Amino acid sequence: MSSSYLNLPAWRQADAIANGEVTARALAEASLQAIASRDVQLRAYTDLTSERALAEADAIDIRRRNGETLPPLAGVPYAVKNLFDIAGMPTLAGGHRDRAGPPAQADATLVQRCAAAGSVLLGALNMDAYAYGFTTENSFHGTTRNPLDDSRVAGGSSGGSAAAVAAGLCAYSLGSDTNGSIRVPSSFCGTFGLKPTFGGLSRGGSRPFVHDIDHVGPFARSARDLARIFDALAGRDPLDAACRPAPAQPTEAALLHAQTEGLGGLRVARLTGWFDDWAMPEARAVATAATQALGGTREVEFKEAALARAVAFIITASTAGELYRDELREHYAQMEPANRDRLLAGSLLPAAWLAHAQRARRVAREAALKLFEQADLLIAPATPCVATRVGAEWLNLPTGRVPARPSIGLLTQPISSVGLPVVAVPMPTPEGLPIAVQIIAAPGREDLALAAAGVLENTGLCFRHG
Amino acid sequence: MTSLPDDFDWAAYVRQTAALQGYALDAEQVGRVAQQLVLIARNAAPLMAADLSDRIEPASVYRA
Fold first, then answer.
1. Of all helices (H) and strands (E), which one includes residue A177?
2. A370: how many CB neighbours lie within 10 A of its CB?
3. Could you tell me the CA-to-CA distances from A387 to A159, A193, A300, A336, B6 in Å, in that order?
4. Distance of alpha carbon A299 from alpha carbon A216, whole angstroms
5. Dihedral of CA A150/A156/A161/A166: which sign?
6. How confident is the model over A48-61, as a mean pLDDT?
7. pTM score over 0.90
8. How many helices (H) and strands (E) does chain B have?
9. Inter-residue contact A96 to A141 (CB < 8 Å)
């Protein structure tokens, strides 16, 4: 049964196709059938690219029959957050006005690179409108439900990307992360997620939210998948001025080496202070468990975390507000009610606040980099708690009661604000729902974070689906 | 930067700056946007309290 492959990691699916256990077409058809039966309730997808998927799958099957060496993700079904351009389709970025707009002329850079790696595109995925939110409660495309408990949100803003992977409706997906939008939904849905170093993967051909902080990256069901995907997609792109060169060595090889040989004396430390203050006991517990499992005995404090978080908040509000200023002026009534007032408020902020935030960002960055004099990898919870209920307005945290929607990213914002690479690894809690830990490395050291994620996965301590 | 006074009139600020930006907001919208600014300002407090040296440059990503 080809459907039995749907919940395997992407690397296993690629192996199965290369070995002839299953065809790429059978896997694509099984994926589309699973979406048809499950996604009515889940609402992870906003659009399907069925014809393209079957054509891409057939092309892989032909290459295999011809005896060609297949690329690393050959025949593996994937989907992308609907802010990535897909040729021939309008790019929605969670809104709906663009549904009637002109279609994208070309695939986004990462979609092109996924295709070059042999993957099969199933469709576009739901998100918070304009990427401004942590819950994927979208007035136009519906609320993406958490596959682990449909009374709860999937997280956001890349909620569809996490839910589709968690439910086996694709092998991997792409999302974006400005303030935590890969790590939060990974935490809530129990998937692995990679937010690379700022510029680690190209944003070319994707709809921006906050140019200075936007990152893009993959979701998957194993750390090894993340490494394989990162290796396939990394590399400079003239369409993204911030894009960095690909790592000199494949991260998948580093991960496999660490899984057999260990982390070779890497210093692992748990982040305290801000990351304890804003976390529920179960979130602190998963960070402690992960740190110990990786041999970490140290604790360090990122003393500028509050500053880094405030920097992210102001740069986001101001930059996104300006980006949508014309839209707010002309089409306010047609915009997402959940965040149009927040966008509008951001567009009214004094310019001096943004300039001050950009200078403070440098201070926060220098403080973050100094932490790596004490440790090679830092561990913190990705979310303060497990997935919240649909419609929840407040979070009750040890430090106080805070509005839920802007606060779910309290623990992720200080890290993306300074651009460090992070792998989110889901861990179990006594409630039965996951909370991810963030494995944080120095800029450009995705290899270390992915290797540690692979080692942690091998311990058997990570969250497992059903 | 200095912190804002607790009694800062955000609604008046919204009315002035919205007009500057060309937004036509009714009284209800002004109230909602002012609430959002209160939230933003509260979250910006650690930033507003940061005393930065004038030698610190912005961390912009612009490259010529």
1. strand A172-177
2. 13
3. 11, 16, 27, 22, 34
4. 29
5. negative
6. 98
7. yes
8. 3, 0
9. yes
- Choose among A144, A141, A123, A96: nearest CA to A32: A123
Asked if A328 reaches chain B (Cβ–Cβ under 8 Å), the answer is yes
Q: Following DSSP, what letter does each residue of A105-157 receive, concatenated?
A: SS--HHHHHHHHTT-EEEEEE--SGGG--SS-EETTTEEPEETTEEEEE--SS
Residue spans of alpha helices (H) in A297-392: 305-323, 325-331, 340-347, 351-371
Distances (CA, A) of B24 to A119, B9, B14, B15, B55: 47, 19, 11, 9, 40
**b vs e for A281-293, b when ≥16 Cβ sit within 10 Å of the residue's Cβ?**
ebbbbbbbbbbeb
Phi-psi map region of A462: left, alpha, beta (phi>0 left; psi -120 to 50 alpha):
beta
Helix (H, G, I), strand (E, B) or coil at A194: strand
d(Cα A182, Cα A189) in Å, to the nearest integer?
A: 11
Q: Is A32 on the interface with B (CB under 8 A)?
A: no
pLDDT in tens, A361-419: 999 999 999 999 999 999 999 999 999 999 999 999 988 899 898 889 999 999 999 99
Angular region, A391: left φ>0, alpha ψ -120 to 50, beta rest: left
A36-56: average pLDDT: 98
| Residue found under tokens 């935590």 | A180
Give the whole-angstrom CA distance, residue A300 versus residue B48: 25
Question: Omega before A157 cis (within 30°)?
Answer: yes
Which pair of tokens denotes residue A339?
A: 């965040």
> How far is the first Cα of chain A from the last one, in angstroms, to the nearest whole number?
19
C-alpha–C-alpha distance, residues A81 and B29, integer Å: 31
**Residue of A329, A355, A362 lying closest to B22 (CB–CB):** A329
Q: Among B33, B46, B47, whose Cβ lies nearest the Cβ of A345? A: B33
By the 8 A CB rule, do A198 and A105 touch? no
Q: What are phi and psi of A291, to 5 degrees?
A: -60, -45
pLDDT for A100 beyond 60: yes
Looking at the complex, report in whole angstroms how far the Cα of residue B5 sits from the nearest Cα belonging to chain A.
16
Q: Which of A240, A311, A348, A369 to mutate to test the interface with B (most CBs of B within 10 A)?
A: A348
